[in-house]
Amino acid sequence: MPASPRTDRWMAQWLTGMPAETHLSIIAMILGGVFDKVPETLRICFAHGGGSFAFWLGRLDNAWHRRPDVIATSQQPPSAYVSRFSVDSVVFRPEALRVLVDTLGATQVMVGSDYPYPLGERPVGEVVDRSSFLTPDQRAAIRTNNARRFLGIR
User: Fold this and answer.
1) Interior CA angle at 9 toward 5 and 14, to 5°?
2) Are the C-beta atoms of 58 and 82 separated by less than 8 Å?
3) How many CB atoms lie within 10 A of CB 109?
């Protein structure tokens, strides 16, 4: 985000700027029609849990269906594209991870660290381990299996 008095203090560029830019990147790829043009085999992973994308997906779908300036900017509503990308698990709270898993599916979330940046999760994967709502299979998928599939490692 551009420097401004609002973002120059309290690490606001890190606390809001980076997740906001991630959210905007996902929106640009969906509403800009990128996912309609690239092969489904292209693997993309967004950091910062995808920003606020999962939380605002209903708002995006609503705009796609009701706003003339958003309608048909992509072939399908935004929710139809959630299987086309992954996000990392660096959201720091089980409640936030639950929103990701409930919205995108456990297959689209993989453990992240934000290393080497100072706000990364330490120890890596802690939020996944603390998320009691996850089944053992979901935990294994997020901790290891999704990254293996993403990277083409068997």
Assistant:
1) 110
2) no
3) 27
Residue-wise pLDDT for 4-45, tens only, equals 777 676 666 766 768 889 999 999 999 999 999 999 999 999
Note the pTM of the prediction, 2 decimals: 0.90
Q: Rounded to 10 degrees, what is the CA torsion of 52, 53, 55, 59?
A: 120
Q: What is the pLDDT of residues 114-142, one digit of tens each?
A: 888 777 888 889 999 999 999 999 999 99
What's the CA angle centered on 59, arms 54 and 62, to 5 degrees?
130
Burial of 5 (0-12, 13-18, 19+ CB in 10 A): exposed
Nearest residue to 45 via CA among 74, 85, 79: 85
The answer to whether 78 and 32 are in contact (CB under 8 A) is no
Helix, strand, coil distribution of the chain in percent, nearest 5 = 55, 5, 40
